[in-house]
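re: that complex we talked abt at group meeting.

here r the seqs, copy pasted straight from the sheet so there may be weird spacing, ignore it
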Amino acid sequence: MIELKPVFVEKTKNVRNFTVMMDALALGKGEGRMGLVYSQAGRGKTRTADWYHAHNGGVFLRMLTVWRTSELEFLRTLCRELGILSPPGRKGPAFAAAVDVLLADPKPIFLDELEKLPAYFLDVVRDLSDLSTAPVILIGEEELVSYMQVNKRVWSRTHQAIEFQPISKSDIISYFFQAAELSINGEVTDIFYGAAQGDFRIVKRGLLSLIQIANAKQTRNISPEMAQIAVKTGLKGK
Amino acid sequence: MGRGYAEIVRSHLKTLGAGGREVTNKELADALDLVSDACKRPMYRVLADLRKQKEVRRVRPGVHVYIGKTTGDELRQKLWRVFRRLRTVTVDDLVELTGASEAYAKEFLRTLVKRGVARRIDDPRRQEKSKYQMVEDPVKMPENEEKARRLRELRRRKKGEALEALQSAEMAIKKARDCLRFDHD
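got the structure back, here u go
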């Protein structure tokens, strides 16, 4: 009986690049600096940042569309994430309170989907990084790059930028082995690689279907035919 | 295999796998000076135990990466960070992102439910795994009161036993002194 184990595959190029970026940002201690992580959806940006945040700490905020009209809600949420139990009710004091906490402990701040909010939020984030010296890592889709490039002050502080690459064949092989202890041959890998088109979520769904098929057949030997069926039922969501 | 042998294997893994380097079973066996398959068997058993404890991770057959020991406090902090960040999680989310065991993640979530920080959501119409949703954000991680209470109780019991032992020792000494005094008289 094959089971799908919840695993995070650390040995991928994207995760390695992310870790290297975080190490490089840590070197610039004492000055405001920003990192940028971007790509199409489904490449694992947010999951990787979640994993890094779980193991290394910091503050992780998913930017909400309801904050569009006010920086105050953003600042108050940031304060709470920083451990301030009763955040100030006005922008200035809330910003100062966040800076005070970060100055004492300049932990990384991960902001996901900032591009949903008006461009002036970038200046708020830049001020926060400059005054607190905490690294700010912005995570988003491709439009985040142009959103940042327009603001020269922000772009010049962006020390690191990485684009998450599509899932590779070796990533698929590692994931199948680590999550289900399944060793797959080149032909099976090609089938999944072709159908996924770089999207990790699709590979995960495909593996689930493949496990169901393999368990029904009571085998651990994955044939290309089984992979094709898994692709049809799982990968395309039919 | 005793604890001593596991410590030896662990120390070699730490040295060979410093900086996240991959360690092959052959390298480890060479470092431990093991040649035959029979000699290597205890090493494989220790590796399997370390894998279960998430201290090492198998990257592919015969190759491991040493991750290191995680204390309970650190692990709870990791679980708390994930739960606080995602607000609604499954046990699988916690296991995937923190590397905790399924049993530990379940226990952690049960404690949060007991403390009124989380609630369990089950939809009987769907065959999905249970989700746990944050209902109140206390900002700081709630302490595991049950465990703290058990430890307090254990300390109190041990203190009681120690006092009892002291009393009986004092009585025995007094009795011995009385006997000696009686002899002198």
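couple things i noticed - The two ends of chain B are 60 Å apart (CA to CA). Chain B has a mean pLDDT of 86.
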